[in-house]
Amino acid sequence: MVRMGRNDHAVIEAVLAGDKEAYGALVVRHSESLFRVAFRITRNEADADDVVQEALLRGYQKLGSFRAESNFGTWIYRIAVRCALDKIGGRKVDESSRVSDETSPELQEVQVADWAAGPDRLLLSGEIGAMQETAMHGLTATERTAFVLRHMEDCTTEEIGAALGIGPNAAKQAVFRAVKKLRVRLAVLRVRT
Amino acid sequence: MSHLREEELIEYFYSRGEVGARGNRHVESCAECAEAYTALQADLEEMEFAEPPARDAGYGERIWESLAQSLPAYAAPRRRWLRSGFWMGLSYAAACGLLVSSAFIAGTLWEKNQTSSATAARPAPPAPKERVVLVVLGDHLDRSERLLVELKHADVDSADMVSPLREEAKSLLAANRVCLKSATQGDDPELKTALGDLNRLLDELANQPEGLNSAAIARLQSEMNSDGLLFEVRVLRSRIPEGQAAGMTGEGGGKI
């Protein structure tokens, strides 16, 4: 039975003092929020569950290095983002949504794969959401994670950089590249409307 | 007027107008940038991504159940102190003790070694229990030579000359015994023979029952070959450098 009621820091002290069961309170408290960000990055329910478990396991193992002045929620959130990034980084990108990373330096345009299936058929079948999902899969793991954190999680570029282990400017550029690629891919929706 | 780049428009969108006064003013005043921003805003706001599936209330519990089995408990601080502090301190103490012991043993061995080598380098000191008589052989031979010369030219009719010979012989006899004993232990046969002959002569001179008279002196000069003994003493004396107190070892190896 998981004991609740103590704040995160008190629980961490108890865990480090040898009370393993106390960690259960942190798991119950943060699992759902970790699942949300994990799902948004992985776009897959099973993968998101794996990410939650992996993040909480890594968090327990690194608990000795957790600094008291930090926020456990933020700390474990970053670990979960890294786990999700690892997850999608190792996953093979769908061939139909492959995107070249080559960008014209003059036009600052992104070269995307041709959508042979055609927008009309996709729209007619009511698969706009699937189209967006496909566009998301065309992003690199870093771009997708940066975009999710910026667009859906309302993280600042500093927070994104910290979560991804990169500098704020690199995080900002990753968001820019993601938005450009998505706009190019989803331009067909504007044509339809 | 330069227009905002797409990156700036994207940043403007996500910062919700907090990107700065320049961006706000420009988008409001520039029709071209305002149009570009409106298009960007529409694209981003129209993106509808699937919301994460809801997790039930027992989700966290299930995650914990799956994790709990594989998590080892952290060591209690006291035990950690024991491990990191006490045992580490004990290790340091043991290492220091070992170092001190090694230094002590090494020092002892070194000192012993030094002592034995110094002992080997120096001549053995005289044993405290053994009497050491230091007699300068050169002086003894000088005195003996003078006695023999006087004996050779003694005026046997003069009692004034004979009496000092007897007293000198008695005095030299004690010293000669010591020299003879030392020479017997040494490896100089010539010295041993000469001192032995000298000892018999001195003994006769010092212990004549009727006292020294012309007949006794003549007999001693003849029987004891005092002239030959004088020659031997001179030879031995010449082997000793002038002014050097050449010594001999006395009893127990003492230097004479």
How would you describe the overall organization of this protein?
The complex is a heterodimer of chains A (193) and B (256). Chain A has 193 residues and is mainly α. Chain A folds into 2 domains: 8-89, Rna Polymerase Sigma Factor, Chain: A (Orthogonal Bundle); 95-192, Winged helix-like DNA-binding domain superfamily/Winged helix DNA-binding domain (Arc Repressor Mutant, subunit A). Chain A has helices at residues 8-16, 23-42, 45-61, 72-89, 119-124, 128-137, 141-152, 157-164, 168-185, 187-192; strands spanning 99-103, 110-112. In chain A, strands 1-2 form a two-stranded antiparallel ribbon. In chain A, a hairpin with a 6-residue loop joins strand 1 and strand 2 (110-112). In chain A, helix 2 packs across helix 4 (72-89) and helix 7 crosses helix 9. Chain A is elongated, with a radius of gyration of 20 Å. Among the domains of chain B are: 6-45, no CATH class; 137-253, no CATH class. In chain B, helix 1 (6-14) crosses helix 3, helix 7 (159-185) packs antiparallel against helix 8 (189-206) and helix 8 (189-206) crosses helix 10 (226-239). The longest helix of chain B has 45 residues, at 77-121. Chain B is rod-shaped and about 165 Å long. Classes of the chains: A mainly alpha (193), B mainly alpha (256). The A-B interface holds A 2, 15-21, 23-24, 27-32, 35-36, 39-40, 43, 45, 48, 52-53, 56-57, 60, 63-64, 108, 128-129, 132-133, 136, 150-152, 172, 175-176, 179-180, 182-183, 186, 189-190 and B 6-7, 10-11, 14, 39-40, 42-44, 46-50, 52-53, 55, 59-61, 63-64, 66-68, 70-77, 79.
